[in-house]
From TrEMBL:
One of its GO terms (biological process) is nucleotide metabolic process. This is Phosphopentomutase. One of its GO terms (cellular component) is cytosol. One of its GO terms (molecular function) is magnesium ion binding. It comes from human gut metagenome. CDD domains: PPM. SUPFAM superfamilies: Alkaline phosphatase-like, DeoB insert domain-like. NCBIfam families: deoB, PRK05362.1. Belongs to the phosphopentomutase family. The keyword Cytoplasm does not apply. Keywords: Manganese, Metal-binding. Residues 4-377 form the Metalloenzyme domain. InterPro entries: Alkaline_phosphatase_core_sf, DeoB, Metalloenzyme, Phosphopentomutase_DeoB_cap_sf.
Amino acid sequence: MKFKRIFLMILDSLGVGEADDASKYNSKGANTLGHILEQTDLFIPNLKKIGLLNTINMDENENVDAYYTIAKPNNIGKDSLNGHYEMMGILSDTVFKTFNEGFPNEILDSIENITGRRIIGNKPCGNSIDIINELGELELNYGSLIVYTSADSDLQVAAHEDAVPIATLYEYCEKIRALTMREDWKVARVIARPFTGKVGHFRLINAGRKDYSIKPPKRTILNSLSENKYNVIGIGKVNDIFDKEGINKSIKISDNMEAINKLLDIMDKKFTGLCMVNLNDFDSNYGHNRDVEGYQKALEELDVEIPIILNKLEMDDLLIITADHGNDPTFEGNYHTRENVPVIFYSRSFFTPKKLPELSSLGAIGATIADNFNLEKTEIGISVLDELE
């Protein structure tokens, strides 16, 4: 075992340029990080020092403190579930449904039948608070359910806690999850979105958000890790993405900064295994909303924390920074973009960090983790553990 603890940080949606098959996904020309760099005064010196900016064009840079490269997506989607699945060693043949024009009446009628409540909304919305501000008073007065979708494969249900108790909202979402397992309705996630506050001052109860996902179609390295008595810690939406499979400690968060603070807390603890943290604000708050400046500021906020994170690493720790897909905030529409993703490997024990050859799959990340802990080989991906010196 080369590394006792591995910390995997996923910058949700931070692609670094169009994938080879981008045209199949209407993503020709997409470059999330590259276009943010072009259109703003992005200042991320600490992320630059570990090679992040070099991944845009795969420039040679010997003056870096980490190994850097890109990984090419092999999964059949451009969503979080398939990206994370591939990262953890499996490919799914499921294309999750999206309903970017709203849900068909048959779904809505079925939801009304199983909940006994009227449905309002039924449209795409990239930022939950927007539709809650629009329809929250109506929902509060009549006890309706606000049903909507982001640009992802999801069905979100928002309700004021005074009109629909949170426990009841969870019961409804469990029933809706079962309902949407039908193949032509199969969304990746059903999301409960409780909110509170008075009219004009509504706010999401972030701690009350609950995702109802789908179990991975096959075993991932998370299963192998936990079965071999290693710690597997998920911060953020990791637990929901894998539907609890293979994760033995889950930490809920409300935003990127809380996720980073929870990560720093975990870094102070002794354990052997994997800690996986997803920074979702990049995607949900800025990518989908096509907010270039917001994305820029969020990256700069992360950059300030990077030295603190690096200083907490022990000599036998490994930090991996990557992404699950792209979501170019300068691109048309408000959907994910099919992009290559950055892969950064940092350890205080490295002697000669440099550019690595391009990785043919996100699965190389999982393969490297499995190799480090002497686990069975993953279905996809080639380990680069021996390259990290």
